[in-house]
Known about the structure:
- The chain has 426 residues and is mainly alpha-helical.
- The protein has helices at 11-18, 24-35, 40-43, 52-65, 83-103, 108-129, 136-145, 152-170, 177-188, 226-238, 247-261, 268-282, 293-298, 301-313, 319-356, 362-373, 381-388, 392-404, and strands at 68-72, 75-79, 209-210, 216-218, 379-380, 408-413, 416-421.
- The protein starts with 10 loop residues before the first helix and ends in a 5-residue tail after the last strand.
- The mean pLDDT is 88.
- Keywords: Transcription, Transcription regulation.
- It comes from Methanoculleus submarinus.
Amino acid sequence: MKPPRTPEYSPADVKKAWEHADTRDVIDAVFNYNKRYLHWEELKWRDLPVDPLYVWILMKAFRERDMKYVSFDDLRLKYNLLDDFLENLHFLDRSAAEIISSGLDSRPQDRNRFITNSLMEEAIASSQIEGAAVTRTIAKKMLREQRKPATKDERMILNNYITMKRITQVKDEDLTPELILEIHKTITRDTLEDPNDEGRFRDNNEIRVFDMRGNVLHTPPDFALIEGLIEELCAFANNDDGQFIHPVIKGIILHFLIGYIHPFNDGNGRTARSIFYWYMLRKDYWLFEYMAVSRAIKDAEGQYKLAYLYTESDENDLTYFIRYNLAAVKTAVDNIRKYIEKKQGESKQTLTILQKNEGLSLRQAEIIKSLIKHPDKPITIKEIVETYRVAYGTARSDLFRLEELGYLAKRKSGKEYIFIFRGLKE
């Protein structure tokens, strides 16, 4: 990936550009491409009525009219609230939570199971973005069975999962350097070359972000500035200071800042996405517990990196980064809606199983339904605990009850029992 650039231009270029401001085709191009918020790297290849540089100069001028600014130490961030941003934010504020709430069963155990699945998806995808080479199937099996990770990549996923659950517990706490260090320590445990780097800010300037060809994409601030920058980041997260920034936008800015500061030798991306998740829950966007935003990011990973690079290469214009992340959030909501529709169809199957097989509880029927899909897959008590978020004794009772009714066969495996599906009753 070649590092993106924006062009330099002189006062004479600006004067020449404004000579075209009365030309309808030029202004149409300016407004059209500003609506789509193209970067110079995207604009310069377009078929334009005049030199692309002149269109770019006018685009920049119109962007500046409505720009909002965020001062952060010596870093001056800015962004535009595009119409589609406002539409997406309105959707999140008014409709998304209703879609999720109305689509989920009112029973706490169903909501808990949904949250568990989403936390798993988020943990897996966030780790895969950073290079964890583990499939979703294997990763979910490890988490559900509470199996110890066999590789560093599996450990990354387990750490992420533990971190996500921890964030749901500390969502009402202020963000502090200590909390950020705790999150980093949890998320990187036993995965770094130097274990001493776990939960510790970097103490060197050797860290760079490179592309596959060795080009430097990002040089973080001097390590001596990190503690001060993190203190300021925490103050920005905890206080409004009279400047209203929509919570989702502010969460995205926090996400960007962790990536920009790059306070750790490794684990910065996972920490950044965790801080975003923390901030959304802190601001009562409970629907994010049900969303795997990192899954949407993983599916468009190249654009995620470009969003960072476009922002930094264009005078720290966060609009690129905000646009990408809002689109990822919208995709995550769409994925939830599809998942709910799928689960509603499966619920009808569960009811059919209940009607045909007397003596089952609803959860026991759902266990059977999952076994029908994978009849050769053994199931364990620990897996039921993690999947359905129930106590060990409850999970044990369910499986023993299903064995008693003839649906499962019980086998001893070491100190644990495994259960094999025997089929439905005729």
